[in-house]
Design a protein that fits this description.
- The complex is a heterodimer of chains A (about 425) and B (about 250).
- Chain A is an alpha+beta fold and about 425 residues long.
- Chain A folds into two domains: about 180 residues, no CATH class; about 180 residues, no CATH class.
- Chain A has 15 helices and 16 strands.
- Chain B has about 250 residues and is α/β, with parallel strands linked by helices.
- Chain B contains eight helices and ten strands.
- In chain B, helix 4 packs across helix 5.
- The chains are: A alpha+beta (about 425), B alpha/beta (about 250).
Chain lengths: ~425, ~250
């Protein structure tokens, strides 16, 4: 007897009791769908973290000062005020300065670095135009290099140049949120206008391309201006908030980090233990974030696998009931010439059909659910999770179908026929 | 049917079947020796518990004897494995049961095709033969009906069509009229007479004398042994009912 004949018998067996078959499939459907959805949520989280970090710029390194708290922890017997006054100690109050940034832009000592930009951040800046006013969470003063390190481009107008920087020009680039808040509409009419930042006049020369919202952070609610002008009028001539650098390639990020550390160690007279700055690169962030979301995915996936297993036990339960219920049918089939293998094949195919149909429905359902966007986050269907869920449901059908099928086939025809 | 006339289709030699052990030991069939020739029409009679059903199960390879030798068409069935036994049931034996034993929710045509499916006959050929068998039992207009949509007599005729569709060496019937009214019983017995007239070998288990009157040879069983063995007509002659009018089924 051919497989297709057995499949036909199995199909007839399934359709003979439709509600029961449908409920059993529902168990598998839920199992498979939850594997796909939960793994999809994990993958989606992974993707979203990766996207966010990539939008911050690839191959980038950020040099920040170590907070004084940390310095204090590292040197519990030396008060910060002593640091500031002391001149003969290794620990100086010098943080990150413009000259630090310039020193890093040295192709001799730092060949792995392509671009360096100082970052001055002014807080509590309010922009006003003709009575409209808008508080700006982030006003960045920097150089032209920052824009290319950060993948920032303008959709209208122009970026500021090195000439603007050297001339301390009061020009600026705005994010879309700021432009919309001040000029109304889509904000494009703000281009070329003179706005006031804390009362100081600046000319809007460009509107930055939108970067979107990450979590609760609106990346378009910002202003970028030449660092010289920001220091002159908004932030003062204190320390830099940070220095950003771009390595010549992704592979050179570690070299670049080492070169930055050695240049700054020399300038700050520090070493690995006394360092008053920290260098981080986006790859480090990315790997840390990825390893967390990977654990997340595995955790969710294994939870979902449990529900798939429960669905499989449902299949086994129904197949055992089916075998008992159809003992006479098995007896008739054996009496008219069905062999052990024919009976095993029929009942096993019935179990496999149940779980495979349930699995396909689960894949479709899981896929549809993954298309739903919840607060800007969307689960990503991972192809491997579909393959995993499907093959697992197939295996569940085979595995949980074998025992009832063997039981059905091992009945003596006369016992099966006598069964009431 | 043609074949070696001297070799019996059914050859039981001192066959016993016991159930239980020790004090509860029951001899359902107790040392039966029996030969049935090709073309014979045998009725096995006896009260319930006489072992006639057990003997039919042994003859039909549904059950295995405890002792003795059984050759079906020259083959010692105890030497066969499960697959070969199911093949022998499929090729050499056609069963008709008291309660029809059709597969529920399955059309008459599919029920009759079933043994051919297990025999590996291609679909087109299967359908042709099943339709022919159903036509022979007078149910050509009921092929798409399920057992629940058929009367008892019609169900039994579907069962006979299913038993005969593989052209088996013997037809085994266990109380074939036990669940039927007298009219349906006559239809079934008339079918058996026709099959016998065409040279088929039939073994019918019954406790009704009216049924046994159709057979060429009548065996009486009691306590697992054959009590008597009477011949009403020669093996190669037509069955008694077709030579002279039947004595009446319901008598």
């Amino acid at each position: 007897m051919s497989i297709s004949e057995s499949a036909r018998f199995a199909w007839r067996g399934l359709t003979a009791n439709k509600p029961r078959s449908a409920l059993t499939m529902l168990g598998i459907l839920i199992g498979v769908a939850s594997v796909i959805i939960l793994v999809g949520v994990g993958t989606g989280a992974n993707q979203s973290v990766t996207d966010t970090l990539n939008s911050l710029g690839t191959n980038t390194l950020t040099i920040t000062r170590k907070s004084s708290d940390t310095t204090q922890l590292r040197n519990p017997f030396v008060a910060p005020s002593v640091d500031a006054a002391g001149s003969g100690t290794n620990i100086r109050d010098t943080r990150l300065t413009m000259s630090d940034a310039e020193a890093l832009a040295d192709p001799e000592l730092a060949p792995a670095i392509r671009l360096v930009a100082p970052v001055v951040v002014a807080t509590r800046v309010t922009a006003t135009l003709n009575g409209a006013s808008h508080p700006i969470p982030s006003t960045t003063g920097t150089t032209t290099a920052y824009l290319s390190i950060n993948n920032d481009t303008v959709v209208a107008g122009r970026v500021f140049t090195d000439t603007d920087y050297r001339a301390h020009s009061r020009v600026l680039l705005t994010g879309r949120t700021v432009a919309e808040a001040l000029a109304g509409g889509d904000g494009s009419s703000l281009l070329g206008q003179v706005i006031r930042l804390n009362g100081k006049e600046f000319t809007v020369i460009g509107i930055l391309e939108a970067k979107g919202v990450t979590g609760r952070l609106d990346q378009d609610d910002r202003i970028i201006a030449p660092a010289t002008a920001v220091q002159d009028h908004l932030a003062g001539y204190g320390d830099l908030s940070s220095i950003v650098a771009q390595a010549v390639s992704a592979a050179a990020v570690n070299d670049a980090q080492a070169q930055i550390e050695s240049i700054l160690d020399a300038r700050h007279r520090t070493n690995v233990d006394t360092r008053d700055f920290t260098v981080t690169n986006s790859a480090t962030f990315l790997n840390a974030a990825k390893s967390i979301t990977d654990i997340f995915t595995v955790l969710l996936g294994s939870l979902a696998t449990v529900s798939l297993l429960v669905g499989g036990i449902g299949v086994m339960n129904i197949m055992l009931v089916t075998v008992t219920e159809r003992t006479r049918e098995i007896g008739i089939r054996k009496a008219i010439g069905a062999g052990r293998s024919d009976i095993i094949l029929q009942f096993m195919l019935e179990a496999v059909l149940l779980s495979v149909l349930g699995g396909i429905a689960g894949i479709i359902f899981g896929y549809l659910v993954c298309q739903i966007e919840i607060s800007g986050f969307r689960a990503v269907v991972a192809p491997y999770s579909v393959a995993l869920a499907f093959s697992f449901s197939l295996a569940v059908g085979l595995f949980f179908g074998i025992y009832p099928a063997m039981r059905a086939a091992s009945l003596k025809p006369i016992d099966a026929l006598r069964y009431e | 049917m043609t074949g070696p006339p001297d070799r019996p289709v059914i050859d039981l030699r001192n066959v016993s079947k016991t159930y239980g052990v020790g004090e509860t030991l029951v001899h359902a069939v107790d040392g039966v020796t029996l030969q049935v020739q090709r073309g014979d029409y045998v009725a096995v009679m006896g009260p319930s518990g006489s072992g006639k059903s057990t003997m039919m199960n042994l003859i039909g390879c549904l059950d295995a004897q405890t002792r003795g030798l059984y050759r079906l068409d020259g083959v010692d069935v105890r030497l066969l494995d499960d697959r070969q036994q199911s093949r022998i049931r499929n090729r050499k034996i056609g069963f008709v049961f008291q309660n029809f034993n059709l597969i529920a929710r399955t059309t008459a045509l599919s029920n009759v095709e079933l043994p051919l499916v297990y025999a590996g006959v291609p679909a087109r050929e299967r359908r042709r033969r099943a339709l022919a068998a159903l036509r022979e039992v007078g149910l050509a207009d009921r092929i798409e009906h399920t057992p629940a949509q058929l009367s008892g007599g019609q169900q039994q005729r579907v069962a006979i069509a299913r038993a005969m569709v593989t052209e088996p060496v013997i037809l085994l019937a266990d109380e074939p009229t036990g669940a039927l009214d007298s009219h349906s019983s006559e239809e079934v017995l008339a079918l058996f007479d026709q099959l016998s007239a065409h040279g088929r070998t039939l073994v019918v288990i019954t406790h009704e004398a009216g049924v046994a009157a159709h057979a060429k040879r009548v065996l009486q069983m009691h306590d697992g042994r054959i009590r008597s063995d009477e011949r009403n007509a020669p093996v190669d002659a037509p069955p008694p009912a077709l030579r002279h009018p039947p004595t009446g089924v319901a008598s």
